[in-house]
């Protein structure tokens, strides 16, 4: 697994993580509170396997459920997954329809699995574009799971980072009288982001070898450790995930100091 971390040159080969047992000996203070996942490469994985793109999305969906469990078992309390960007609405209608089918499956059928494990579900993104039935189901699920504390799974769905910041600024404009003419602070904006109740990601993992964030959490990622993995998302393994956590645990985060 090849990777690149911000400010570091990539080694020739990412070290293979031996086992989950080894991870148990890591200091708890080094386990990230929040992990961001850019799950890229479903279609490229399918093409490489000579399969239709839909099969790549299906495999990627199953991998998503696995990854949430890996994170929860490792002690990660928050996972933000980039499942559908605001730009993805420009894809072919047939592909969008299939992706919405998977979203419905997650929110309506497979959500019961997360409830049993006391995972809190959150949706972050533009809630005006998805269909009414999806967003109503999402709202109910958020309410039903809001007291769960084992782990928070935030689905960045119909999400765009610039759109999120623009929305926060518009909220401030709408509330301008309550500010009494004082200057707007970073805290004012952060409190109005869609992720206001979720910690900023300590690390962000992107699969498929692309080395950019693609409008994912631009405000929240300023001090995130970035790991770019060469594998396509459906091929990403538990060993790969724990390997990133192992590497993260050895890093000293300076926050610009």
Q: Can you identify the CATH class of the largest domain?
A: Alpha Beta
Shape: globular
Strand order of the largest sheet: 3-4-2-1-5-6
How many extended strands?
A: 6
Profile the largest sheet.
6 strands, parallel
**Count of discrete structural domains:** 3
Proportion of residues in extended strands = 5-15%
Name of the CATH architecture of the largest domain: 3-Layer(aba) Sandwich
- Give Rg in angstroms: 19 Å
Give the uncertain stretches in residue-range form: 4-19
- The chain-level mean pLDDT equals 90
TL;DR of this structure?
This is Isoprenyl transferase. With 257 residues, the chain is of the alpha/beta class.
Description:
The protein folds into three domains: 30-74 and 198-248, Undecaprenyl pyrophosphate synthetase; 83-150, no CATH class; 160-193, no CATH class. The two termini are 30 Å apart. It is 39% helix and 14% strand. It is of the alpha/beta class. Strands 3-4-2-1-5-6 form a six-stranded parallel β-sheet, sandwiched between helices. It is built from nine helices and six strands, in the order αβααβααβαβααββα. Catalyzes the condensation of isopentenyl diphosphate (IPP) with allylic pyrophosphates generating different type of terpenoids. One of its GO terms (molecular function) is magnesium ion binding. Its EC number is 2.5.1.-. One of its GO terms (biological process) is polyprenol biosynthetic process.
């Amino acid at each position: 697994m090849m990777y690149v971390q911000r400010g570091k040159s990539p080694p020739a080969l990412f070290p293979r993580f031996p086992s989950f047992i080894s991870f148990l000996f890591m200091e708890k203070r080094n386990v990230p509170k929040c992990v961001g996942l850019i799950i890229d490469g479903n279609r490229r994985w399918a093409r490489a396997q000579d399969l239709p793109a839909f099969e790549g999305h299906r495999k990627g969906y199953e991998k998503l459920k696995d990854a949430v469990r890996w994170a929860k078992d490792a002690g990660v309390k928050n996972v933000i997954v980039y499942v559908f960007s605001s730009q993805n609405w420009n894809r072919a209608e047939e592909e969008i329809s299939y992706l919405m089918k998977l979203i419905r499956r997650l929110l309506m059928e497979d959500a019961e699995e997360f409830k049993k494990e006391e995972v809190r579900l959150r949706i972050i993104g533009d809630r005006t574009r998805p269909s009414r039935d999806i967003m109503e189901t999402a709202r109910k699920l958020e309410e039903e799971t809001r007291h769960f504390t084992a782990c928070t799974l935030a689905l960045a769905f119909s999400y765009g980072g610039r759109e999120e910041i623009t929305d926060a600024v518009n909220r401030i404009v709408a509330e301008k009288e309550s500010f009494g003419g004082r200057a707007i602070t970073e805290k004012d904006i952060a409190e109005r982001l869609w992720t206001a109740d979720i910690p900023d990601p300590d690390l962000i993992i992107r699969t498929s070898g692309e080395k950019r964030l693609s409008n994912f959490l631009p405000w929240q990622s300023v001090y995130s450790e970035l790991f770019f993995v060469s594998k396509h998302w459906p091929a990403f393994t538990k060993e790969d995930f724990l390997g990133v956590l192992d590497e993260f645990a050895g890093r000293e985060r300076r926050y610009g100091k």
